Amino acid sequence: MQRVGYLGPKGTFTKMAVDALFDQGSFVSFDSIPACLDAVERGEIDTGVVPLENAIEGSVHLTIDYLIHQVDQSVIAELTVPIRQHLLVHPDYNGEELTHIYSHSHAIAQCHQYLYKNYPNAELEYTASTGRAAEVVIEKGVHVAAIGNHLAAEENGLNILTPNIHDYDNNHTRFAVVQKTQRKLEVKDHPIATQKTTVMVTLPKDFVGALHQVLAAFAWRKMNLSKIESRPMKTGLGNYFFLIDVDQPYDDVLFPGVKAELEALGCTLKLLGTYPSYQLDIPSPVCQ
Amino acid sequence: MQRVGYLGPKGTFTKMAVDALFDQGSFVSFDSIPACLDAVERGEIDTGVVPLENAIEGSVHLTIDYLIHQVDQSVIAELTVPIRQHLLVHPDYNGEELTHIYSHSHAIAQCHQYLYKNYPNAELEYTASTGRAAEVVIEKGVHVAAIGNHLAAEENGLNILTPNIHDYDNNHTRFAVVQKTQRKLEVKDHPIATQKTTVMVTLPKDFVGALHQVLAAFAWRKMNLSKIESRPMKTGLGNYFFLIDVDQPYDDVLFPGVKAELEALGCTLKLLGTYPSYQLDIPSPVCQ
Q: Phi first, then psi: what are they for A177, rounded to 5°?
């Protein structure tokens, strides 16, 4: 049986991604991204699921930097999950004044305008995750609320007082599924949105137009890039590498051609993974 | 007197940036990035200081997205601060066992390997900021520690038990200084590392090689780019804009030329700021 680790506790957005991807397996919750990736590295779990972009719980840079610098793992799938934040209350709640609202700092910030308009007097209290915030409501009672997703409500027996209180629609988080030794990934039946390949490119030095030359190697082959991000190399300010998402699977002609061309320019190219990209569609919950 | 707001409380890395930049003024602490930027927007403060990249407290994406979508402000300076995390203990600490270690989740993650090796049995507890973690040590006593910077130690009367416990050297955070109505910025005497200009470029649609064409407009003018990042447009998946840092001040020839060329391609270019980039050098503290 596959052993899947994730950034927990129960009721986080990462757990939503795990539930959407996996039917069977043993599931292990970790309290930080490095702890989860270390467990994959040591072989304690087969598969790790961690936030990769626009995350609620945990820093995105942390995931990328840990994958680049600390472990030797491949991204074998990604899942995009829409971020819908709801105001969650105790099952006994009956219109009492809400004095405190709990959540992860990013979730509170994402609902900043809603809270400012509707609960200007409530104290905002920070927790390690949106899942943890939901647990606190059960402990504290009817005068407090949590901000979290519908899974956090279900897992803790809370009611959704107001759904969709986030300030932006169309906010999504990308989750990476990683493995050390590539095994077959048994996931639920999802339509595959696209096949992607992620590579890391380092430049020999900070020279004018270097990135332009790198992109030319992709552009003249008509390889479409869906994301590009520069990140510091950790060897001092001003030294960057580039993470590039290419909208096609790895192949034995185009990618090796790009690699050879870049190496001739003094660059390096490392493959971080070629993988299916899934999308999760969550129906909006009805107000209770 | 200038009114400066920042992501607080006292003892955060943002407050370190404020202390490094400003001699005089009235200083106001905010508990979230949106709250700070909203106060600038409403004119309650003249200047805001918020984390922009590789932040400890608060999400970087949150700052960028709020500047792009919610407010109309300019970046008028940036300051780069080295991130040095220390293990902070109560002034009465005398070798007692540390049962709990408090900090912001990002700071705990940044010291993950140190904690794993040295304090495998301590409970890790999360706070809204590294500054708040230091306050908790005063409240809880000698059996707990905090992870934070030297300012958090000073402000709260804590001792540094072990300095520099972060897993990576050369980790830095960039802070943005923003204003709504551009006023003269009276900062302390710092050597200016470089002059930068940040622009936002949107593409007409996700066409092959679009970014390559955009970069060509900079490359043939020999304008060096120090950072490029794609971000979702919030109008649905797959629509991206690009944030580009150019290593030179805005001028009336090159930048308008780039703008005109990009507009001819169906792109838009918006100036987010042209500003001095300062660097803060912090001497490493001695173990107490």
A: -105, 120
